[in-house]
Design goal:
Elements lengths: L1 H8 L3 H9 L3 H8 L5 H13 L3 E6 L7 H21 L5 E5 L11 H18 L4 E3 L7 H14 L4 E5 L5 H8 L5 E5 L14 H17 L3 E5 L3 H13 L8 E5 L4 H9 L4 E7 L4 H10 L1 H14 L1
Helix pairs in contact: 1-12, 5-6, 6-7, 8-9, 9-10, 12-13
């Protein structure tokens, strides 16, 4: 399986230097990460919302090592909120945040991450939008869920992400499928040991369906994070069986992947949200996109061969 190899490369400084230096890399990265600054991303936001889509914005970043870097990540999101306010698009564009960017892995990181993310959640609420806490590797999840619970006391619309490949997630889904909750379900994109996660695609897919059924039958708001046509069809059927209306759940897909499907689902009346990342520290995010889907890797390799 290439996925674990690519994920290992995402943590390699040598591979980072090699891939970053390749002439074709920027062209390929632009498929997934269409800008480095808020100014770069505004035309993308306007184009996608103008086509009936909704967005969740991710300011990419990895390897936060100082409180100052964590504060800078907070400020980058606050700048995004101000731009969304100016555009009048608060209700169409939410934000996704990784708590590692807010200092979660530093000394006193749980409290630091909560202190940094709270003003972002507060600012988002003030313009009519929301924040979703992204899931990272399994060692961070207890802290993430605790911060999620704390934020929801004042901002109950705050969402979180759960990952189907983790053994714990079925129990997490039962707990989270309550009235007022917002939960994005994804397969998972980190290299996890066999002690905590399914390793085979078939097992992960089966877990995804079981967990999605729990969310659809619950009282919360499920967010279906998948590009898999089969899982999308299953999600629609589970929603139908649960008696959910089209505005009582949504689909989420990554910018640059299956863009025609984004538009098809929106045209059919589904809520379709495009996960759109931007920023200069793109390497880790880009490598996880390659690891998630063999077609992404093939696209990158073909581009390197044709342009090299």
């Amino acid at each position: 399986m290439l996925g674990p190899v690519i994920l290992a490369a995402s943590r390699s400084d040598r591979m980072r230097r090699l891939i970053s230096a390749a002439p074709v890399t920027k062209q390929v990265v632009d498929r997934f990460i269409p800008g480095e600054t808020v100014a770069d991303i505004v035309p993308i936001i306007e184009e996608l919302t103008g086509r009936g889509l909704e967005l969740t914005m991710d300011v990419v970043g990895e390897d936060i090592t100082t409180p100052e870097q964590a504060a800078a990540a907070r400020d980058a999101y606050l700048a995004l909120v101000e731009r969304l306010k100016d555009l009048g698009l608060g209700e169409r564009v939410e934000m996704s945040v990784k708590l590692s960017m807010f200092g979660q892995a530093l000394r006193g990181g749980h409290e630091l991450a909560l202190a940094n993310v709270r003003p972002v959640v507060e600012a988002a609420a003030a313009i009519g939008t929301t924040v979703t806490l992204d899931a990272e590797d399994h060692t961070t999840l207890d802290s993430m869920f605790a911060i999620h619970e704390e934020l929801r006391k004042d901002f109950p619309q705050t969402g979180c992400v759960i990952q189907a490949y983790l053994f714990r997630t079925e129990a997490d889904a039962r707990r989270l499928a309550a009235a007022g909750s917002r939960v994005r379900l994804v397969k998972g994109a980190y290299k996890e040991p066999a002690e905590v996660a399914y390793q085979q695609k078939s097992e992960i897919d089966k877990a995804y369906v079981r967990i999605l059924r729990t969310l659809m039958e619950g009282e919360g708001y499920p967010m279906v994070g998948s590009h898999d046509p089969r899982l999308i069809s299953i999600a629609q059927e589970l929603a139908r069986r649960a008696g959910r209306k089209p505005d009582e759940y949504e689909f989420q897909m990554l910018y640059g992947i299956r863009s025609d499907e984004h538009l098809r689902l929106a045209a059919e009346g589904h809520r379709m949200r495009v996960y759109t990342a931007y920023g200069t520290d793109w390497y880790g995010y880009f490598m996880r996109r390659l690891a998630e889907k063999p077609a992404n890797l093939r696209f990158f390799v073909r581009s390197m061969i044709s342009k090299g």
